[in-house]
Design brief:
Blueprint lengths: L9 E5 L5 E6 L3 E4 L2 E4 H9 L4 E12 L2 E10 L7 H9 L10 E4 L35 H14 L13
Parallel strand pairs: 6-7
Antiparallel strand pairs: 1-2, 3-4, 5-6
Length: 167
């Protein structure tokens, strides 16, 4: 009785009033800062990085205005991986808005009984954890002023480093 219905990947239900209520996505497509992003595309790019055996990505919502991409990576070597190296490799295949803000090392990627990634079982980053391994302090007065402006604008709760990206 609703005419033509398209297969969009969205899950919805019809309310008694006849309105449609959006319940979420059926796939792993997300919308972040106006961009439609397939988490699988980020995971595929991570899997192509040297040093990564398995990977899973998800959105982490700190507040309604602050949502970030987190990637959990299982390294190929026992000594782990270098986040800066992986980030450089990702920049060759992904646009900046798809680069995860946090890269976390995990022993294994948790799976559901059907073999899909259990995104709810992935660890959350600590706010003190950096998405880059080596953070350098702010040196000049200009850097400190810019950092203060960004801190106020995005209501950041931890120190901003020179390497931080605000995408």
């Amino acid at each position: 009785a609703y005419g033509k219905i398209y297969r969009t990947g969205d899950l919805a239900k019809v309310l008694p009033s006849g309105e449609l209520q959006h319940l979420g996505r059926l796939d792993d497509q997300i919308k972040l800062r106006g961009y439609r992003i397939e988490l699988g595309e980020i995971e595929s790019a991570l899997m192509n990085c040297s040093g990564v055996r398995a990977a899973a990505a998800y959105l982490w919502q700190l507040s309604p205005e602050d949502v970030r991409i987190v990637a959990c990576c299982q390294p190929t070597a026992a000594e782990g991986f270098q986040a800066t190296s992986i980030r450089k490799q990702l920049r060759t295949s992904l646009p900046n808005y798809m680069i995860p803000q946090f890269l976390l090392q995990v022993d294994t990627i948790p799976l559901l009984p059907n073999g899909k990634v259990n995104r709810k079982g992935l660890p959350k980053p600590a706010m003190t954890e950096s998405s880059v391994l080596s953070r350098s302090g702010l040196v000049s007065d200009q850097e400190k002023l810019i950092a203060d402006i960004w801190t106020e604008l995005i209501q950041q709760k931890h120190a901003i480093a020179r390497e931080d990206t605000f995408f």
